[in-house]
Amino acid sequence: MTELKESEGVDYVTRSGNDNLDFVKDVEGLSRLETTAWHEVDETHSRLGEIRARMAGFENVPLIDADGKQWGDCQAVIADEYDRQGRRIPDRPRFYYVTSLPIVPEKSDSVAAVRRYYRDRWSVENQGFWVLTKRWNLDMLAGRNYNAIRARLNFVLQLYNAENCCVWKHPGLYDEEMHRLRRPAAGDRLGKPCVMLYTPDGKVGAFQANEYAKLLGTAAKEMGRAQGVAEGKAQAKAEAEAKIKAELKTSIYKALGEGKNIGDILNDL
Fold this sequence. Notes:
By secondary structure, the chain is α+β, with helices and mostly antiparallel strands. 50% of the residues lie in helices and 20% in strands. Among the domains are: 2-119, no CATH class; 210-268. It is built from seven helices and seven strands; from the N terminus they run H-E-H-E-E-E-E-H-H-H-E-E-H-H. A five-stranded antiparallel sheet has the order 1-5-4-3-2, with helices on both faces. A two-stranded antiparallel ribbon has the order 6-7. The longest helix is centred in the last third of the chain and has 49 residues, at 209-257.
């Protein structure tokens, strides 16, 4: 995950599942410090009901694997679960969360957000899986050919992603959003064929055909203008040099006609 963060800039929130990791031992040691700030946040769980989580956050905790290789630093959050009367909930372990997101250990909201992000993964996983299987029948194979199965999977996932993008962009009721869906705003990419451009420095852009044509026209004009300026400068330089040469030649002939020697002429020039 640290490589994903470094290469793609994607942040992560996960949970440590092995209490023998050095990471867990490091965090346990930090949690015993008197300077550690603890926060209590009330939560509602579908199975546990109304509970209270006691949490603490830590910055710049080193990540070291079993071979001793260090993978950089991360932020950590630990959490213990209690009932609303302050009694520890039985059979519930201490939770260790690892994240690349910045946190402020002194602020309750900053620390609690990491645990909330991790808990929210269930709604994403459960809802997404249900929609893909019940609405799009993703678990039903389109055939026995590998390419056919792969093509259908890709197509369904793209449709699912496009539908979610549309819902996020137009969150209102269908009757309220219909006029916007019928006449997309300028620059809308959803459902329209577009030209994808990749730059040498790793950037990508999506352009509609008319935008791409306009882009090419603008680029051609700019290149032509730059070329014209360069040619104008070169021509002016050549004309200046020719003028200087002509003046030098005239001056030399004139001096020779007046009987001056070469040394005097060069000194005058």
